[in-house]
Specification:
mainly alpha, Leucine-rich Repeat Variant, about 70% helix, CAND1/CAND2
């Protein structure tokens, strides 16, 4: 009892011991370890934990000393209890806690004491532990192995080498099987705890483990295979050469079952099904199962090891499908349930690896390479289904759950793959839904599987099975457990789409008659819809399901419909269910069956209008979509009063603060203009137009919101010509008024572009007004009193209008625009160049020859080339075809221009022109790589960048064949050519990785070569009394590191991470910009390949520490201080990311750095704020609502 009281006291923070008390307590507890009573001994060990953090350094030394001496004692019980005590002490003082330990010791003893304290004892701990590995008691060996596992995480290198050498020597001697088993177990434990350290010894260890695998001893085999599993998971690089050996051993032992004969099972499936009904069937296993049979453990270890191999070696997928996949499928018949679960888990891992997570896997180019993993899996589907078919009827719940997980993952990877096999699988799913012995989880898994299969396969495949599917699903909807009900409602919703697909007119499945099932499905759903006292999730799913029933089958439910819609109205008024109900109403309103919603519209529309002022963004968006579709399909039933209620809520929604909501609001207004033109009169004096004009002037207006805005203006101009205040000229004045009123210029150039686009949309809708307005704009540009703002808007508007309307009837246009090229304002010049290009698109034969002639003769080539770029980018391919040759020859004359800006525009033009006729022009581009001029070479390589986009294009196969030639310029003698080659490579890696994946082996050495600092490119420039260092190679290195960062996202599986890390390590010591990039890379690598980073951790910590501890000179400028602060923050982000790797803090260097951070006030503050940011970001990403 006294010991127990002491332990509870020690656990309190308030207790403080003086030297004398410390000595007495330590002495007494160590004495209690030798007590005769086992319980007292156990309590004494538990006291050691809190005690070591309360006493001084020399007392901890006494404790460790005594424990080590006790472990060599003759008394077995004392040895046991001391080893547990030592483990407790080691666990209490890991290196990472050294900082906190120091603070709790009196007057903050020097940092690192706790760490150095145990480090001093590591050799003696090791010498005590090693003899225990041969102890006659297995429990002692097991604990020794655990203690060694804890030791290797933090021990020094010499101790680690001693331990490994000892293990290798003993394994080589192989005195007896029992100790060999222990040594193999110990090796596996060390690998699990400190895999990053054992890697370099694998060459010696693996042949020994392979040798023992072949010894006829089941337990030894199990330990050997477990050792392989830990090597595969923890030492990915070093184990690579041995993976084929590991796979072949695992495949061999996966089928290792000497006491059982499986052959007769496959003879006759029907006989087996008949046997299923025989009550004694299960008993037939008993005569084989032998208590001494350990072979199942070998099979389980083999399955787990294969799981590890499959999960970690993505690049070997095709090989796995050739050898591992068929072997695993054959073992689905495994008799031992635990082993079977692991076999299924291994196959699940294989499927997860195959899932095309990367865009390149789904690329048509990538698919051309013969046997891809997906096509190989496709060919094995019949074999998988045959194996699963038997297992789905097993009595074991665990087995059936595994089958459902497998099927779910299979159809996620290969949607539609089971179309031919539905008849075989449906009975198995129904069996689990009807089976009285099925657990809740099994039913949930069966329903989830059925749902995924129905979503990913065509409706007609299920028509034959609907009579069998409906009753069990309906009974599950009525199940008292809410999770089953919820899942069953989801299946019912999908089932409704199956029995009456609305998009099925073309595939002839109208032959299927849904009427026998409508009543059952409706009745079970309405019961759940009416219930008020059920789970939130069930309420929502019942609403969605009923929405689907009415959408697909509403015309067959004439009597039930009005009552059901009234329930929807009730649910719409309830805050908890309103969002789901809005979505269901949107679905019903969009149904091609024209469901009669008129009875509920007078009540529903005002409620929907009120939702527009709520804070919930998702509700606003869904409500706008619902109102839009109600207007389209039920315009006659929507009264002006209803419209007014909605219009009153719209002004706050049209703002730059939320572009998506604005876009939906604009779409609603466009629909309103078509269905209720009379309501537009409300807009003329109201807030809505004010908000619209404000939005047009926003620099953020682009993409979908801009398209919706233009659509609204066009519809408005077409429909509202007679409405006062909304005529063509009224709208035009509203748009352009602020610019003409001579007030301050608009704050952003984007606003002029948006206004010009709106003007063009209006003019397209009212062609009669066009000539007068265009004439006015031409006069504005000519007028010497016009401000730059007016000129800018007039030129952009001319360009936008001319893009769609032929302006060749305006004789002055060409001269007016060319005169604007001489303006003093840069913005007016670029607007004139855009206008000329855009107008030319409206009439190529008239304007393109004129532009080409001007480029040849004029001095203003840069602006004219921009006009040409606009023409090539916007004109139709057919229109440009006749001019390709003349444009091409003109561009080539300018691709050697000294001015880089001009060269870049020429390169973009060349690239976009190549897309028009790739067969002819791409080989020509390739030919210019041999040009003597470095300017020409850089233009050509830059041109290739503009032929790459993230969408599939006809040029892709041609580009894939020759992009290697363009990337050979990475070896070009000219610095600038190499830089643009890297930029092009980066663009390819980002937008279309399939182009460069196969070339990485040859390109990466050149890429890595460019990350090195070149002394010959660094020069000193004298600036008055100061000398300034200029590094000409910096841009090149920056481009190389940017490429490396991109490759992490797109081609990770093709990189040798250790070589990659070498260059990241160099980057950590480079210039400011490059450090920032490499810190980002480190954070990314920590999450993508933690085990590789862990192996290099000690080398990565040093540069991070150097960055964090660098001091800026006191007399430096403010920017230097800001730069250093930003570097520190970035380095700290990398440190926080590194610490997310589970075992990072066990590294001695990392833990020392951590204590350094916590003792420095500035660094600790940065560290804490970043940790808070990252944890809140994680919470946000988890909150999917």
């Amino acid at each position: 009892m006294a010991t127990n009281d002491l332990m509870s006291e020690l656990q309190k923070d308030s207790i403080k011991l003086d030297d004398d008390s410390e000595r007495k307590v330590v002495k007494m507890i160590l004495k209690l370890l030798e007590d005769k009573n086992g319980e007292v001994q156990n309590l004494a060990v538990k006291c050691l934990g809190p005690l070591v953090s309360k006493v001084k350094e020399y007392q901890v030394e006494t404790i460790v000393d005594t424990l080590c001496t006790n472990m060599l004692s003759d008394k077995e019980q004392l040895r046991d209890i001391s080893s547990i005590g030592l483990k407790t002490v080691i666990g209490e003082l890991p290196p990472a806690s050294s900082g906190e330990y120091c603070q709790s010791t009196a007057q903050g003893t020097a940092q690192g004491t706790a760490q150095s304290l145990l480090v001093n004892f590591h050799p003696s701990i090791l010498s005590c532990l090693l003899p225990q590995l041969t102890s006659p008691r297995l429990a002692v060996r097991k604990r020794t192995i655990m203690a060694l596992g804890h030791l290797v995480m933090s021990c020094g290198n010499l101790v680690f080498i001693d331990l490994i050498e000892h293990l290798l020597t003993e394994l080589g001697r192989n005195d007896n099987m029992s100790t060999t088993r222990t040594y193999i177990q110990c090796t596996a434990a060390i690998s699990r705890q400190a895999g990053h350290r054992i890697g370099e010894y694998l060459e010696k260890i693996i042949p020994l483990v392979v040798k023992f695998c072949n010894v006829d001893d089941d337990e030894l085999r199990e330990y050997c295979i477990q050792a392989f599993e830990s090597f595969v998971r923890r030492c990915p690089k070093e184990v690579y050469p041995h993976v084929p050996t590991v796979i072949s051993l695992c495949l061999r032992y996966l089928t290792y079952d000497p006491n059982y004969n499986y052959d007769d099972e496959d003879e006759d499936d029907n006989a087996m099904d008949a046997e299923q009904n025989d009550e004694d069937y299960q008993g037939s296993d008993d005569e084989y199962s032998d208590d001494d049979d350990m072979s199942w453990k070998v099979r389980r270890a083999a399955a787990k090891c294969l799981d590890a191999v499959v999960s970690t070696r993505h690049e070997m997928l095709p090989e796995f499908y050739r050898s591992v996949s068929p072997a695993l499928v054959c073992r689905f018949k495994e008799r031992e349930e635990n082993v079977k679960a692991d076999v299924f888990h291994a196959y699940l891992s294989l499927l997860k690896q195959t899932r095309p997570a990367q865009s390149w896997l789904a690329d048509p180019d990538a698919m051309e390479q013969g046997d891809t993993p997906l096509t190989m899996l496709q060919s094995q589907v019949p074999m998988i289904v045959k194996a699963l078919h038997k297992q789905l009827k097993e009595k074991s719940v665990k087995t059936r759950q595994c089958c459902f997980n497998m099927l779910t993952e299979l159809v996620n990877v290969l949607p539609g793959a089971l179309t031919q096999h539905i008849p075989v699988l449906i009975p198995g799913i129904i069996f689990s839904l009807n089976d009285k012995s099925s657990s809740s989880n099994l039913k949930i898994d069966a329903l989830a599987c059925l749902y995924v299969v129905m979503v990913t396969h065509p409706a007609h495949a299920f028509h034959a099975h609907v009579p069998a599917l409906v009753p069990p699903v309906v009974s599950c909807v009525g199940d008292p457990f809410y999770k089953i009900t919820s899942e069953a409602l989801l299946v019912t919703q999908q089932l409704v789409k199956v029995i009456r697909p609305l998009d099925s007119q073309q595939d002839g499945s109208e032959t299927f008659d849904p009427s026998p099932y409508i009543n059952d499905l409706f009745t079970c759903t309405i019961r759940r819809l009416k219930a008020a006292d059920i789970d939130q999730e069930v309420k929502e799913r019942a609403i969605s399901c009923m929405g689907q029933i009415i959408c697909n089958l509403g015309d067959r439910l004439p009597t039930e419909l009005p009552g059901t819609l009234l329930i929807f109205l009730e649910r719409l008024k309830n805050e908890i269910t309103r969002l789901t109900t809005v979505k269901a109403l949107t679905l019903i309103a969009g149904s091609p069956l024209n469901i009669d919603l008129r009875p509920v519209l007078p009540d529903a529309v005002p409620i929907l209008a009120s939702f527009l002022r709520k804070n919930q963004r998702a509700l606003k968006l869904c409500t706008l979509a619902a109102l839009d579709i109600l207007l389209r399909n039920y315009s006659s039933a929507v009264t002006p009063a209803m419209v007014d209620a909605v219009l009153a809520e719209l002004p706050p929604l049209i703002s730059e603060s939320d572009m998506h909501v604005s876009q939906m609001a604009l779409s609603f207004l466009s629909t309103l203009a078509v269905t209720h033109p009379s309501s537009l009169g409300q807009l003329s004096g109201g807030n809505i137009l004010v908000q619209l004009i404000a939005l047009v002037r926003s620099p953020l207006l682009q993409g979908g919101a801009l398209a919706a805005m233009l659509d609204f203006y066009q519809v408005c101009a077409l429909v509202a010509t007679d409405t006062p205040g909304l005529g063509y000229m009224d709208l035009l004045r509203m748009l352009t008024g602020p610019v003409y009123s001579q007030n301050a210029a608009l704050p952003h150039k984007q606003a002029y572009c948006s206004i010009a686009k709106c003007v063009a949309a209006l003019t397209r809708a009212c062609p009669a007004e066009g000539p007068a307005v265009v004439g006015q704009f031409i006069q504005d540009v000519k007028n010497s009193r016009s401000t730059d703002s007016i000129r800018l808007l007039a030129l952009l508007s001319l360009g936008e209008v001319g893009h769609h309307v032929d302006l060749s009837s305006q004789p002055e246009l060409k001269t007016v625009i060319l005169d604007a090229f001489s303006s003093s304002s840069e913005e007016v010049k670029s607007a004139a160049s855009y206008a000329l290009g855009s107008i030319a698109v409206g009439n190529l034969p008239e304007y393109l020859p004129f532009v080409l002639q001007e480029i040849s003769s004029s001095k203003r080539q840069y602006l004219l080339l921009h006009s040409l770029k606009e023409i090539i980018g916007s004109a139709s391919v057919a229109g440009l075809k006749p001019y390709v040759e003349s444009v091409w020859s003109l561009l080539l004359k300018h691709c050697e221009c000294q001015e880089e800006g001009t060269r870049n525009v020429v390169a973009e033009c060349l690239g976009k022109l190549t897309l028009i006729d790739p067969e002819t022009l791409l080989p020509r581009l390739k030919g210019y790589l041999l040009s003597g001029s470095s300017y020409a070479r850089s233009s050509v390589v830059t041109a290739v960048k503009f032929t790459i986009s993230d969408q599939p294009q006809p040029i892709d196969p041609l580009l894939k064949n020759c992009i290697g030639d363009f990337l050979k310029t990475l070896e070009d003698p000219d610095l600038n050519v190499r830089r643009v080659a890297l930029v092009t490579f980066n663009s390819a890696a980002h937008n279309k990785p399939s182009l460069i994946r196969e070339l990485l082996d040859s390109v990466l050495p050149h890429l890595y070569n460019e990350t090195k600092v070149r002394k010959e490119l660094i020069r000193e420039v004298e600036m008055g009394p100061f000398k300034h260092t200029v590094d000409d190679g910096l841009d090149l290195r920056k481009a190389a590191f940017e490429c490396m960062y991109t490759l992490l996202d797109s081609c990770l599986d093709r990189l040798d991470i250790f070589t990659f890390l070498n260059h990241v390590e160099d980057g950590l010591k480079d210039h400011y910009d490059i450090k920032m990039l490499t810190f980002l890379m480190l954070a990314r690598l920590s999450s993508l390949c933690p085990s590789a980073v862990l192996q290099r951790l000690d080398r990565l910590v040093e540069p991070l520490r150097a960055t964090c501890t660098t001091k800026v000179k006191a007399n430096s400028v403010k920017q230097e201080f800001e730069k250093q602060d930003e570097l520190k923050r970035s380095a700290m982000r990398a440190v926080v990311a590194l610490l997310t790797i589970p075992e990072a803090e066990k590294s001695p260097l990392m833990s020392e750095f951590q204590s350094q951070i916590s003792s420095n006030q500035e660094l600790a503050a940065i560290f804490d704020s970043i940790q808070r940011d990252s944890s809140s970001a994680n919470m946000e990403s988890m909150d999917t609502s």
